[in-house]
Automatic annotation (TrEMBL):
SUPFAM superfamilies: NAD kinase/diacylglycerol kinase-like (SSF111331). NCBIfam families: PRK04761.1. Keywords: ATP-binding, Cytoplasm, Kinase, NAD, NADP, Nucleotide-binding, Transferase. This is NAD kinase. The active site is at 53 (proton acceptor). It comes from Azospirillum oleiclasticum. NAD(+) binds at residues 53-54, 127-128, 157, 165, 168-173. Gene3D superfamilies: Probable inorganic polyphosphate/atp-NAD kinase, domain 1, Probable inorganic polyphosphate/atp-NAD kinase, domain 2. Its EC number is 2.7.1.23. It catalyses: NAD(+) + ATP = ADP + NADP(+) + H(+). The gene is nadK. Its cofactor is a divalent metal cation.
Amino acid sequence: MTDASATLTADQPRLAFVCADTDEARAARTRLVHRYGNAPMDQADVVVALGGDGFLLETLHRSIARNRESPLPVYGMNRGSVGFLLNVYKESELAERVARAQRVTLHPLAMRAERVNGEVVEALGINEVSLLRETRQAAKLRITVDGVVRLPELICDGALVATPAGSTAYNLSAHGPIVPLNAGVLALTPISAFRPRRWRGALLPHAATITFEVLEDRKRPVSAVADFTEVREVVRVDVRESRELSLTLLFDPELNFEERILKEQFTP
């Protein structure tokens, strides 16, 4: 192994390495830091995240927390399981790969959840914001879009709003549509809808504000989840795309993220 200072040139990005709490990810970080060095977060150009898709989302959230106005770009390498949002793990020529990577801009969802006790909790969801029943009884939700009631009553296990980047995650498992990155829409998807039985959801303009009102909230409690933030016993949840907040993911050109999402629509 060469010393880190000998492998980077002035025109190459300064890298900060973070990893998931697994033996495989920690070992990878140790080798990469030895080879490329490890810039402090406040001096780095790019964060290299080593783990799975969940850890990549955690890294994006931490990047927002450090600098909401200008979050650091994140280049992920798969040291987890699925790795849909991640590049292939390879240790050679990493600085060069990061330098030529394609940039994908993501806008998270802003959730405002009001609880039974009047408390208001705000959080961001990069993949989705979901509402889920808390007990054996189905949830009853009223859905309003931009002030117009579109569904007076949905009896279900829950419902979710997904970003294009998140449309291949929980949304797809709930039989929601895969949304191309540049489509300019959000996916509104029911989770195990009982009534109306045939409602399969909707595609909404990215500028829409979606409001969920929980009916019979005492008898049928509902929780709201934005990525990793869960709010119990909600009575109302407002969801909108946060266009003022931009996140940047970096992908190897041969693993184009838009192509990956498109390809998923033709996967058996």
